[in-house]
């Protein structure tokens, strides 16, 4: 009996150690993922005066798609079946979330600083929750409404740079509005992806959506080739593109999928807020940006709103099952 108990305890210890090790790896992968993602904002801002946004967007998703495609070759049959069954839906979801969203953020970075963009993007979970309420009918309690309003006020403080007079004069940075629009697009992407329930594993589905994003970004990129004199890539543009497409693109997407498998979607997604911190730190060292008082005030309101939304979730009444 003692041996049996010892064996059970040892097995439990090994299971707990394995689970702890898996979680530790998952968190490490997630931290690296969001660090690489933060670098995309720095690279895009660095070449914003030399490289047009849709060129950066198109080549980023296309190169990431080409790198990840061989990794899912065992799923080509199921990928082809899904593409035949739901092509327009895949194009819509992938185009909104991985092309239009990125293009808007890159346009915004031509006029807004990277630090502000990183803070604004932290609103994505709240935007997703609001859109899910109207599109999917998911519950949204009183505290979620209050938290959303507080977080929205935080974004307003940042956009008007803490000056109510700027709001009265409509003196706002158009780039920051583009970043807000990009965050809304990503929230919409998350909701549409949840509603679609594509029957495909995460990484193969990501590859399909990246292909859809490349197709969506292509017309915008071709328009830039005809109209934007910055369309010729120079040395800085190639360096930035190499970063956003490979470590900040394919590798980042792969690591995010890995972190979701190890931690679950909820915990992996909540680590998105690390990206805001990383963007601010990297922007300070590489772009010479400094946090201003309105950044702190706005970020404080956003954090309070996020705490209300995440910690004071509405209670759902369980549905009684029939005997």
TrEMBL record:
GO cellular component, one term: membrane
Taxonomic lineage from the root: Bacteria, Pseudomonadati, Pseudomonadota, Alphaproteobacteria, Hyphomicrobiales
Membrane topology: Multi-pass membrane protein
InterPro entries the record matches: AA-Vitamin_Transporters, EamA_dom, EmrE-like
Short name of any one Pfam family annotated for the protein: EamA
Protein's name in the database: EamA family transporter
Alphabetized PANTHER family for the sequence: EAMA DOMAIN-CONTAINING PROTEIN, INNER MEMBRANE TRANSPORTER
Highest taxon in the source lineage: Bacteria
Membrane-traversing stretches: 24-47, 53-76, 88-109, 115-136, 143-163, 175-193, 205-223, 235-256, 268-287, 293-312
Keyword vocabulary terms for this entry: Membrane, Transmembrane, Transmembrane helix
Compartment(s): Membrane
Family to which the UniProt record says this protein belongs: Belongs to the EamA transporter family.
All copies of domain EamA, residue ranges: 26-159, 174-310
